[in-house]
Structures are given as C-alpha cells and as structure tokens.
Design brief:
CATH topology of the largest domain: Rossmann fold
Mean pLDDT: 92
Distance between the termini: 53 Å
Strand order of the largest sheet: 6-2-1-7-8-10-9
Number of helices: 12
CATH class of the largest domain: Alpha Beta
Number of strands: 10
Strand content: 5-15%
Radius of gyration: 21 Å
Largest sheet: 7 strands, mixed
C-alpha cells in the first residue's frame, strides 16, 4: 500500500471530493451508460478507492486517465460499484416465514383469483436468493407448482454477475445455510465448487435491468428487494418502492432487508405483516 510522508497509508488520508466523483461518473455514463447519481456518494467513493488502491493510483486524476484508456478497468469498476455478495438462505428466519406463511397465503390468493404467482428477486446478485426460493417451492409446494404457474424472475444491473448466476456454480461458503439433505439432492461437487441442479436453475429467469428504471417494472405478487436499497439515496429509495407498489396487485408481498424499511409516502401503500422480517402487504 502507498505511504504518505507523514507515515499514514495513502488511502487513510486521501478523500475523493464531489467534483472528482462527478468526473468518474461522467466517464461511466459515457462509456457504460451507468449513472451513479442514484447511489449514495459515500458508498461510491469507498468502492472507487478500492479500485484505486488495486491499481496503485496516487490520485483521482491518475485513475480517470486509467479509466479512459482501459476497457477492462471500466468493467472492473462497474462490477465493484454494483456487486452485492450473497449466499443461499441468507437470514434463515425470513425464508422460514416465507415457507410457512407467506407462500401458502399467496398460493391461496392465486387459486381464488385463477392467476399466476409471479416472484421477483430485485437486485439478484449471484442468484442465491432466487434459487433459495426455487428450492423451497420444489421441496414444499410441488403440488401447487403443477397447477399454478409460478415464474421466478431475478434482475441485476451487472450482466457479468448474471452470467455467473445462470451457471449456478458456487463455492462452499455460499452454501453454509443449506441443509445436508438439500445439498445431497440438488448440488453436485465440481472440483472445489458445487453445481446446482438444472431443475432448480430452470425455474429462474435472469434479466439485466436497472432498479432505478421503475417504468420497466412488471407486476409480481411477491417481490424480494433485500440489502439493496441501502446503497441508494433516500429519494431513489422512495422512487423504487413506489415503482414496486405501482406494479404490485393488492395483497402482494414485499420483503426488504433487515436494515431497510419503507420510507416516505410509500408507507401508506403497504401494511406491515411481519416487522421483524421486514415483510409488507400491498393495500
């Protein structure tokens, strides 16, 4: 790591100011059509500093020069800014609640209305969340799957991580919450990683999309948007949540992350059905 004359490490004393952040943002918008304006500045600056440290750039000007000359670094920066590491059954109590109460409720509504149960993992990362839902459906709702269409869609902005998700090949640390029974039935060892069974992978459709583009939201009865909103500014959190509410039929369920909650006027559009697990029902 680089050192300053005072003896402190360079990245302990270096700050990226707002003008410098804007310069990097312009490069990303022009070269990758990616806008940082909806994300929190502090989060973006911290992740940019990671890439600067990796490239041993001594200042933002040097890093901007690198971005203008390196397609590879542009892709690596975009991945660093958007990646959300996850694992199967992250926060097991939420998935227990989903299995025991939420999915039976939604399937009952679908049977009554004669409609599909559409599920959306918004901010899908490596696909673990969507596949966890698919595993629950296959294990506990096989009969419902035979009579009620249950498409699962998973969306992320990063095409690279979506390709990773489609492959369904995971390191063991991503499977820490997966029971030995599920591992035996649905995962096969491939070297030092584990391949998820095709029957589960085939249940999920991965699509590239920007969460901030709420005009593209389609109707879903269950939306999981966990541990993603925290990276967005407050106005864009409200915009995203209103987008979900606009597209969700009455009775639909929204699940947020443990550190997230409804904000602003959107709170009037949902009722809380499980505050502890951040589960809300569309009014």
């Amino acid at each position: 790591m680089l050192n300053s004359p005072s003896g402190h490490t360079f990245f302990e004393t270096m700050d990226i100011d707002d003008d410098e952040l804007s310069e990097i943002s312009v490069i990303l918008e022009l070269r990758r059509n990616f806008s940082m304006s909806v994300y929190k500045n502090k989060c973006m600056k911290r992740r940019i500093a990671i890439r600067m440290r990796s490239n041993r750039c001594q200042n933002v000007a040097d890093y901007c020069h690198l971005l203008r000359s390196s397609e590879q670094e542009l892709d690596l920066l975009l991945k660093t800014l958007t990646i959300h590491v996850s694992h199967f059954f992250r926060n097991p109590p939420m998935f227990d609640k989903l299995r025991a109460e939420i999915l039976p409720l939604l399937y009952a509504q679908s049977r009554k209305s004669g409609t599909a149960l559409r599920i959306w993992s918004l901010g899908a990362a490596g696909g673990e969340e969507a596949y966890s839902v698919a595993l629950i459906l296959q294990e506990h709702f096989a009969d419902d799957l035979l009579t009620i269409p249950t498409p699962i869609k998973a969306t992320d902005i990063d095409n690279g991580i979506l390709e990773f998700a489609r492959c369904g090949l995971y390191s063991e640390d991503r499977l820490n919450e997966v029971s030995s029974e599920l591992r035996e039935r649905y995962f096969s060892p491939q070297g030092n990683r584990f391949q998820l069974a095709f029957e589960i992978r085939n249940m999920v459709t991965f699509t590239q999309g920007n969460m901030a583009n709420t005009g593209s939201y389609a109707a879903h009865e269950l939306v999981l948007c966990r541990n993603t909103l925290i990276y967005f500014t407050r106005p864009d959190q409200e915009k995203i949540l209103h987008g979900v509410a606009d597209s969700m039929p009455p009775g639909g369920i929204l699940v947020l992350g443990k550190s997230e909650t409804l904000v602003g006027d959107v709170r009037r559009r949902f009722s809380s059905i499980c505050p502890e697990e951040r589960m809300y029902q569309r009014i």
